Amino acid sequence: MSRVTLTQFLIEQQRNQKMIPADLRLLIEVVARAVKTISVHVGKGAVAGLLGNAGTDNVQGEAQKKLDVVANEVLLHANEWGGHLAAMASEELDDPSYIPKTYPKGEYLLVFDPLDGSSNIDVNISVGTIFSVLRCPANMEPTEEAFLQTGRRQVAAGYAVYGPSTMLVLTVGTGTHGFTLDREFGSWVLTHGDIRIPEDTKEFAINASRSRFWEPPVQRYIAELQQGADGPRGQDFNMRWVASMVADVHRILARGGIFLYPLDEKNRPRGGHLRLLYEANPMAMVVEQAGGAASTGREPVLDLVPQGLHQRVPVILGSRHEVERVVAYHAE
Ligand code: AFP
Q1: pTM, entire model
Q2: How far is Cα 128 from Cα 244, in angstroms, rounded to an integer?
């Protein structure tokens, strides 16, 4: 059986589709290699002594897990010497990470959440890595300001999910494609070409323990889903919540669904829960490229103009018709 690897897929995008330049292809391959290394660390878990807290806090004031630190280091070191990057920004770092003077610089900016869903590490549940690639604006130093571009300007985005198998889901603006890691051969194999999210769904994902803080449009939407066949929707819905955004989004790409981390009374002072640059934008591009939708409830995520590297926003994404319904409830 002939298998299309990530390298072949990217060369095809570069050569025939003229969608990506060679240095962007290289950048994505380096990220994919780093993700393989992270997958090995995640897979070893307790055997390598990698469970538990690192004893440090990140810029968000959250306790860092040992694997957060390891995954961050792997991505930084893998990407700093290739010559394709101007700078990197990580959810785990206060400021952008600049390319050491000893290495050549390129035109791209790499943004990542090295280990998303890290509260799941110690209980052996799926976690992931999320990444986004921007171009550094011409004549601009790669300081924080250079990263503050709308999600529409992303030239590539994706995530890896470390589950029963490790998968890399990627978009370069020509649809969303999934690659599975063949552990014996060490290669990424295209297993899920041109993923399409069903427009309708019977599944929703939300942290319902926060329901008393939700705004009225979200209260109404979820109440209608919970009323099921006896309510205005006239059908039953099922609920899922992994608490790893990568795993929840991956399920939605595979079989549809809606994911909500909305604005609520508790997270309002911070603007929401999920990080715009590290989580919301890359996932919104992946979802839109798969035919789904991503909104804050008030505007498309990808249209937001970032105000800071670590800005948080509300996120509602997944099956198009359900996201549109939640947006309509907000408009009312
Ligand atoms: P961590 O990476 O800090 O564990 O956060 C995970 C996350 O940002 C996202 O992946 C989940 O969807 C969400 O937070 C889970 O939030 P709850 O703790 O409210 O379930």
Answers
A1: 0.96
A2: 8
